[in-house]
Amino acid sequence: MIEQMILHGFRVIMTGLLLWSSACCAQDEDLLDLEADSPQIQLATTQNGASNEAAWRNANDIWHAAVLYCEASRLGSIEALYRLGMLYAFGRGVPQRPDIASSLFSLAAYEGHAEAKAMLETLPLKKFEVPLCVKDPTALPEKPVPTSETANAKTAEIYRRIAVLPGNKAWVVDLITTLSGWYAIDPGLVLSIISVESNFKVGAKSGKGAQGLMQLIPATADRFNVRNAYDATQNIKGGLAYLRWLLSYYRGNVPLVVAAYNAGEGNVDRHKGIPPFKETRQYVKNVMGLYQRDSLPYDEQVAKPSPIARDVR
Protein backbone atom coordinates (compact mmCIF):
# COMPACT_ATOMS: atom_id res chain seq x y z
CA MET A 1 0.00 0.00 0.00
CA ILE A 2 2.82 2.43 0.87
CA GLU A 3 4.58 1.64 -2.37
CA GLN A 4 1.37 2.25 -4.33
CA MET A 5 0.92 5.59 -2.58
CA ILE A 6 4.49 6.57 -3.49
CA LEU A 7 4.00 5.51 -7.09
CA HIS A 8 0.67 7.32 -7.27
CA GLY A 9 2.23 10.45 -5.84
CA PHE A 10 5.03 10.37 -8.35
CA ARG A 11 2.52 9.81 -11.13
CA VAL A 12 0.67 12.93 -10.00
CA ILE A 13 3.94 14.88 -10.07
CA MET A 14 4.70 13.65 -13.57
CA THR A 15 1.20 14.54 -14.72
CA GLY A 16 1.65 18.01 -13.26
CA LEU A 17 4.95 18.42 -15.05
CA LEU A 18 3.31 17.33 -18.28
CA LEU A 19 0.51 19.88 -17.90
CA TRP A 20 2.98 22.60 -16.92
CA SER A 21 5.19 21.83 -19.89
CA SER A 22 2.21 21.81 -22.25
CA ALA A 23 0.89 25.14 -20.96
CA CYS A 24 4.17 27.04 -20.52
CA CYS A 25 6.40 25.68 -23.23
CA ALA A 26 3.93 25.28 -26.12
CA GLN A 27 5.17 21.80 -27.03
CA ASP A 28 4.05 20.40 -30.38
CA GLU A 29 1.13 18.02 -30.07
CA ASP A 30 3.06 15.12 -31.56
CA LEU A 31 5.82 15.65 -28.94
CA LEU A 32 3.31 14.58 -26.32
CA ASP A 33 2.87 11.19 -27.97
CA LEU A 34 5.70 9.89 -25.83
CA GLU A 35 5.93 6.15 -26.21
CA ALA A 36 8.29 4.07 -28.37
CA ASP A 37 7.84 6.43 -31.35
CA SER A 38 8.40 9.65 -29.38
CA PRO A 39 10.95 12.13 -30.72
CA GLN A 40 13.13 11.81 -27.61
CA ILE A 41 13.23 8.03 -27.77
CA GLN A 42 13.88 8.03 -31.51
CA LEU A 43 16.81 10.36 -30.96
CA ALA A 44 18.09 8.39 -27.99
CA THR A 45 18.06 5.05 -29.79
CA THR A 46 19.66 6.11 -33.06
CA GLN A 47 23.04 7.47 -33.94
CA ASN A 48 23.12 9.29 -37.26
CA GLY A 49 19.88 7.47 -37.99
CA ALA A 50 21.63 4.11 -38.21
CA SER A 51 22.64 2.13 -35.14
CA ASN A 52 20.67 1.52 -31.95
CA GLU A 53 21.88 2.20 -28.41
CA ALA A 54 22.81 -1.44 -27.75
CA ALA A 55 25.60 -1.15 -30.32
CA TRP A 56 27.10 2.04 -28.94
CA ARG A 57 30.50 1.88 -27.27
CA ASN A 58 30.91 5.56 -26.47
CA ALA A 59 29.70 6.18 -22.91
CA ASN A 60 29.22 9.88 -23.62
CA ASP A 61 26.85 9.08 -26.48
CA ILE A 62 24.83 6.81 -24.21
CA TRP A 63 24.79 9.54 -21.56
CA HIS A 64 23.16 11.84 -24.13
CA ALA A 65 20.55 9.12 -24.66
CA ALA A 66 19.94 9.18 -20.89
CA VAL A 67 19.40 12.95 -21.09
CA LEU A 68 16.69 12.41 -23.69
CA TYR A 69 15.09 9.61 -21.67
CA CYS A 70 14.96 11.92 -18.66
CA GLU A 71 13.19 14.55 -20.74
CA ALA A 72 10.70 12.05 -22.12
CA SER A 73 10.11 10.62 -18.62
CA ARG A 74 9.29 14.07 -17.26
CA LEU A 75 6.74 14.45 -20.03
CA GLY A 76 5.00 11.19 -19.12
CA SER A 77 6.65 8.49 -21.25
CA ILE A 78 6.45 5.05 -19.64
CA GLU A 79 8.79 3.62 -22.29
CA ALA A 80 11.40 6.23 -21.39
CA LEU A 81 11.21 5.29 -17.69
CA TYR A 82 11.89 1.68 -18.63
CA ARG A 83 14.78 2.51 -20.96
CA LEU A 84 16.35 4.88 -18.46
CA GLY A 85 16.02 2.13 -15.86
CA MET A 86 17.90 -0.26 -18.14
CA LEU A 87 20.77 2.21 -18.46
CA TYR A 88 21.02 2.53 -14.66
CA ALA A 89 20.66 -1.24 -14.23
CA PHE A 90 23.59 -1.99 -16.52
CA GLY A 91 25.63 1.14 -15.84
CA ARG A 92 25.64 2.27 -19.47
CA GLY A 93 26.30 5.98 -19.84
CA VAL A 94 25.26 6.56 -16.20
CA PRO A 95 26.44 5.01 -12.90
CA GLN A 96 25.21 1.49 -12.20
CA ARG A 97 22.51 2.11 -9.57
CA PRO A 98 20.20 -0.86 -8.88
CA ASP A 99 17.97 1.18 -6.53
CA ILE A 100 17.34 3.83 -9.16
CA ALA A 101 16.81 1.17 -11.83
CA SER A 102 14.26 -0.73 -9.76
CA SER A 103 12.43 2.52 -8.89
CA LEU A 104 12.14 3.43 -12.56
CA PHE A 105 11.01 -0.11 -13.40
CA SER A 106 8.40 0.13 -10.63
CA LEU A 107 6.99 3.33 -12.07
CA ALA A 108 6.82 1.84 -15.56
CA ALA A 109 5.42 -1.48 -14.32
CA TYR A 110 2.73 0.37 -12.35
CA GLU A 111 1.56 1.79 -15.67
CA GLY A 112 1.50 -1.66 -17.30
CA HIS A 113 4.93 -1.92 -18.93
CA ALA A 114 5.48 -5.71 -19.23
CA GLU A 115 9.28 -5.64 -19.66
CA ALA A 116 9.66 -3.37 -16.64
CA LYS A 117 7.57 -5.76 -14.58
CA ALA A 118 9.81 -8.65 -15.66
CA MET A 119 12.93 -6.72 -14.62
CA LEU A 120 11.51 -6.30 -11.11
CA GLU A 121 11.77 -10.08 -10.67
CA THR A 122 15.54 -9.59 -10.68
CA LEU A 123 15.77 -6.11 -9.20
CA PRO A 124 12.96 -5.84 -6.62
CA LEU A 125 12.17 -2.40 -5.24
CA LYS A 126 13.99 -1.97 -1.92
CA LYS A 127 14.46 1.79 -1.75
CA PHE A 128 12.50 4.29 -3.84
CA GLU A 129 14.89 6.66 -5.56
CA VAL A 130 14.65 8.32 -8.95
CA PRO A 131 17.29 10.48 -10.65
CA LEU A 132 16.82 14.19 -10.19
CA CYS A 133 16.72 14.68 -13.95
CA VAL A 134 13.34 12.92 -14.08
CA LYS A 135 11.83 15.53 -11.74
CA ASP A 136 13.84 18.68 -12.47
CA PRO A 137 14.14 19.94 -16.08
CA THR A 138 17.34 21.81 -15.17
CA ALA A 139 19.09 18.67 -13.88
CA LEU A 140 21.14 16.23 -15.93
CA PRO A 141 21.78 12.54 -15.25
CA GLU A 142 25.01 11.64 -13.52
CA LYS A 143 27.97 10.45 -15.53
CA PRO A 144 29.71 7.20 -14.55
CA VAL A 145 32.82 7.47 -12.43
CA PRO A 146 35.77 5.71 -14.12
CA THR A 147 37.02 2.76 -12.09
CA SER A 148 40.22 0.77 -12.34
CA GLU A 149 40.43 -3.01 -12.24
CA THR A 150 41.22 -4.62 -8.94
CA ALA A 151 44.56 -6.31 -8.37
CA ASN A 152 42.83 -9.66 -8.57
CA ALA A 153 41.28 -8.79 -11.91
CA LYS A 154 44.73 -7.90 -13.28
CA THR A 155 46.36 -11.11 -12.16
CA ALA A 156 43.71 -13.84 -12.26
CA GLU A 157 44.13 -16.21 -15.19
CA ILE A 158 40.46 -15.88 -16.14
CA TYR A 159 40.97 -12.26 -17.19
CA ARG A 160 43.76 -13.23 -19.53
CA ARG A 161 41.50 -15.85 -21.07
CA ILE A 162 38.51 -13.58 -21.65
CA ALA A 163 40.77 -10.93 -23.17
CA VAL A 164 41.14 -13.13 -26.26
CA LEU A 165 37.51 -14.23 -26.58
CA PRO A 166 36.13 -13.82 -30.12
CA GLY A 167 33.69 -11.00 -30.71
CA ASN A 168 30.66 -13.28 -30.85
CA LYS A 169 31.30 -14.30 -27.22
CA ALA A 170 32.67 -11.07 -25.75
CA TRP A 171 29.19 -9.63 -25.14
CA VAL A 172 28.56 -12.39 -22.62
CA VAL A 173 31.35 -11.02 -20.41
CA ASP A 174 29.59 -7.65 -20.07
CA LEU A 175 26.32 -9.38 -19.19
CA ILE A 176 28.01 -11.62 -16.61
CA THR A 177 29.83 -8.69 -15.03
CA THR A 178 26.65 -6.65 -14.66
CA LEU A 179 24.46 -9.47 -13.33
CA SER A 180 27.17 -10.59 -10.90
CA GLY A 181 27.08 -7.11 -9.37
CA TRP A 182 23.34 -7.45 -8.78
CA TYR A 183 23.95 -10.66 -6.82
CA ALA A 184 27.04 -9.30 -5.00
CA ILE A 185 29.28 -12.05 -6.40
CA ASP A 186 32.78 -11.49 -7.78
CA PRO A 187 32.36 -11.77 -11.57
CA GLY A 188 35.75 -13.49 -11.77
CA LEU A 189 34.29 -16.59 -10.10
CA VAL A 190 31.28 -16.63 -12.44
CA LEU A 191 33.47 -16.12 -15.51
CA SER A 192 35.75 -18.95 -14.39
CA ILE A 193 32.84 -21.34 -13.90
CA ILE A 194 31.28 -20.46 -17.26
CA SER A 195 34.63 -20.82 -18.98
CA VAL A 196 34.95 -24.39 -17.70
CA GLU A 197 31.27 -25.28 -17.97
CA SER A 198 30.40 -24.06 -21.47
CA ASN A 199 33.31 -22.01 -22.86
CA PHE A 200 30.82 -19.12 -23.17
CA LYS A 201 28.46 -21.02 -25.51
CA VAL A 202 24.86 -19.94 -24.91
CA GLY A 203 23.44 -23.10 -26.50
CA ALA A 204 25.75 -25.59 -24.81
CA LYS A 205 24.22 -28.89 -23.68
CA SER A 206 25.99 -31.74 -21.91
CA GLY A 207 25.40 -35.44 -22.23
CA LYS A 208 23.80 -35.34 -18.78
CA GLY A 209 21.27 -32.70 -19.81
CA ALA A 210 22.97 -29.62 -18.32
CA GLN A 211 21.98 -26.56 -20.33
CA GLY A 212 23.27 -23.15 -21.34
CA LEU A 213 26.15 -20.96 -20.24
CA MET A 214 26.22 -22.12 -16.62
CA GLN A 215 25.16 -25.68 -17.49
CA LEU A 216 22.08 -25.81 -15.29
CA ILE A 217 20.50 -29.21 -14.85
CA PRO A 218 16.67 -29.13 -15.00
CA ALA A 219 16.35 -29.56 -11.22
CA THR A 220 18.57 -26.55 -10.54
CA ALA A 221 16.77 -24.50 -13.19
CA ASP A 222 13.43 -25.30 -11.50
CA ARG A 223 14.87 -24.57 -8.06
CA PHE A 224 15.83 -21.05 -9.09
CA ASN A 225 12.87 -20.29 -11.40
CA VAL A 226 14.70 -20.45 -14.73
CA ARG A 227 12.05 -20.92 -17.40
CA ASN A 228 14.40 -21.03 -20.40
CA ALA A 229 17.92 -22.25 -19.66
CA TYR A 230 19.06 -21.25 -23.16
CA ASP A 231 18.18 -17.61 -22.56
CA ALA A 232 21.52 -16.10 -21.53
CA THR A 233 20.13 -13.71 -18.93
CA GLN A 234 17.85 -16.28 -17.30
CA ASN A 235 20.62 -18.88 -17.26
CA ILE A 236 23.16 -16.57 -15.66
CA LYS A 237 20.65 -15.33 -13.07
CA GLY A 238 19.80 -18.92 -12.14
CA GLY A 239 23.47 -19.83 -11.79
CA LEU A 240 24.16 -16.69 -9.77
CA ALA A 241 21.28 -17.44 -7.41
CA TYR A 242 22.71 -20.92 -6.85
CA LEU A 243 26.24 -19.57 -6.30
CA ARG A 244 24.97 -16.97 -3.84
CA TRP A 245 23.21 -19.75 -1.92
CA LEU A 246 26.31 -21.97 -1.98
CA LEU A 247 28.58 -19.13 -0.83
CA SER A 248 26.30 -18.59 2.15
CA TYR A 249 25.93 -22.32 2.83
CA TYR A 250 29.71 -22.91 2.82
CA ARG A 251 30.50 -19.57 4.44
CA GLY A 252 32.58 -18.24 1.56
CA ASN A 253 34.76 -21.34 1.04
CA VAL A 254 35.26 -21.13 -2.74
CA PRO A 255 36.66 -24.66 -3.40
CA LEU A 256 33.66 -26.18 -1.62
CA VAL A 257 31.28 -23.91 -3.54
CA VAL A 258 32.87 -24.93 -6.82
CA ALA A 259 32.77 -28.63 -5.89
CA ALA A 260 29.11 -28.36 -4.92
CA TYR A 261 28.27 -26.54 -8.13
CA ASN A 262 29.58 -29.58 -9.99
CA ALA A 263 28.57 -32.47 -7.75
CA GLY A 264 25.80 -31.02 -5.55
CA GLU A 265 25.96 -29.90 -1.95
CA GLY A 266 24.70 -33.31 -0.80
CA ASN A 267 27.83 -35.04 -2.07
CA VAL A 268 30.12 -32.38 -0.62
CA ASP A 269 28.47 -32.66 2.81
CA ARG A 270 28.49 -36.47 2.68
CA HIS A 271 32.23 -36.60 1.96
CA LYS A 272 32.99 -33.68 4.29
CA GLY A 273 34.86 -31.85 1.57
CA ILE A 274 35.56 -32.14 -2.14
CA PRO A 275 34.14 -35.54 -3.19
CA PRO A 276 36.60 -38.19 -4.42
CA PHE A 277 35.06 -38.14 -7.90
CA LYS A 278 37.60 -37.81 -10.70
CA GLU A 279 35.36 -35.43 -12.66
CA THR A 280 34.67 -33.17 -9.68
CA ARG A 281 38.31 -33.00 -8.59
CA GLN A 282 39.42 -32.09 -12.10
CA TYR A 283 36.57 -29.55 -12.32
CA VAL A 284 37.64 -27.86 -9.08
CA LYS A 285 41.26 -27.82 -10.27
CA ASN A 286 40.29 -26.22 -13.57
CA VAL A 287 38.05 -23.53 -12.05
CA MET A 288 40.46 -22.68 -9.23
CA GLY A 289 43.30 -22.51 -11.74
CA LEU A 290 41.43 -19.71 -13.45
CA TYR A 291 40.06 -17.94 -10.38
CA GLN A 292 42.81 -18.29 -7.75
CA ARG A 293 40.87 -17.10 -4.71
CA ASP A 294 39.97 -19.44 -1.86
CA SER A 295 37.42 -17.31 0.00
CA LEU A 296 34.80 -14.67 -0.73
CA PRO A 297 32.38 -12.50 1.25
CA TYR A 298 28.89 -13.97 1.66
CA ASP A 299 25.46 -13.09 2.97
CA GLU A 300 24.88 -15.31 6.00
CA GLN A 301 21.11 -14.70 5.81
CA VAL A 302 20.73 -16.48 2.46
CA ALA A 303 21.28 -20.01 3.86
CA LYS A 304 21.99 -21.78 7.12
CA PRO A 305 25.59 -23.00 7.25
CA SER A 306 26.50 -26.46 6.03
CA PRO A 307 27.27 -28.92 8.85
CA ILE A 308 30.83 -29.09 7.49
CA ALA A 309 31.27 -25.35 6.92
CA ARG A 310 33.49 -24.94 10.01
CA ASP A 311 35.16 -28.33 9.77
CA VAL A 312 37.06 -27.89 6.51
CA ARG A 313 40.51 -26.46 6.05
Describe it for me?
The chain is mainly α. The protein folds into two domains: 2-135, no CATH class; 151-291, Lysozyme. It has helices at 2-25, 39-44, 59-74, 78-90, 98-110, 114-119, 132-135, 151-155, 157-162, 167-182, 187-197, 218-223, 232-249, 254-263, 265-270, 278-291. It is elongated.
Q: What order do the helices and strands come in, and which of them pair?
A:
Layout: H1 2-25, H2 39-44, H3 59-74, H4 78-90, H5 98-110, H6 114-119, H7 132-135, H8 151-155, H9 157-162, H10 167-182, H11 187-197, H12 218-223, H13 232-249, H14 254-263, H15 265-270, H16 278-291
Helix pairs in contact: 3-4, 4-5, 10-11, 10-13, 11-16, 13-14, 14-16
| Biggest beta-sheet profile | none
Q: If helices are DSSP runs of H or I spanning 4 or more residues, what is the number of helices?
A: 16
Helix content: 55-70%
Distance between the termini: 49 Å
> Which class do the helix and strand fractions yield?
mainly alpha
Can you tag this structure with a few keywords?
313 residues; mainly alpha; Lysozyme; 2 domains; 56% helix; 0% strand; elongated
Précis, in short:
It is built from 16 helices and no strands.
